[in-house]
């Protein structure tokens, strides 16, 4: 196994551990809602970024099936969205909610830059860390908006 495969396998392990360790039992339904919803925009936007040659993934799981990072789009980012949504500090002051929201894409992009520099898992073609940061932040807020809408019962009769 090469370093790319090891890192990608570790992302799978860490993602499942994050779910099992940080999602309380009474929030499992909420976690599923967030997880499944985030797979849609993540997958579509990830495929679009590859199709428009903004990003490439030279080394990836399921390389013959899809050209995007299945690990990030299908598992890692939806797990991050779950944690973002269920722990969003709704009762705190605006400054703390803002810092919370800004921290998530900042940490993800920092990790992405390290992966970009030291592995073959991702390659920016016409992309940069700022675009990643903005797209992650907007997608997380989209997910949070859906999450709150769904859980307030406005989507159910």
Task: Describe the structure concisely for a colleague.
InterPro entries: CBO0543-like (IPR048147). The chain has helices at 3-22, 28-51, 70-86, 94-118, 129-151, and strands at 55-56, 123-124.
Question: How is the secondary structure organized here?
Answer:
Layout: H1 3-22, H2 28-51, E1 55-56, H3 70-86, H4 94-118, E2 123-124, H5 129-151
Antiparallel strand pairs: 1-2
Helix pairs in contact: 1-3, 2-3, 2-5, 4-5
Q: How many angstroms does the end-to-end distance come to?
A: 51 Å
Number of strand segments: 2
Please, how many domains? 1
Mean pLDDT: 92
Describe the structure.
The protein is an all-alpha fold. Helices cover 69% and strands 3% of the residues. The chain has one domain. It has helices at residues 3-22, 28-51, 70-86, 94-118, 129-151; strands at residues 55-56, 123-124. It has a two-stranded antiparallel ribbon. The radius of gyration is 16 Å and the shape is globular. It starts with a helix and ends in a 6-residue tail after the last helix.
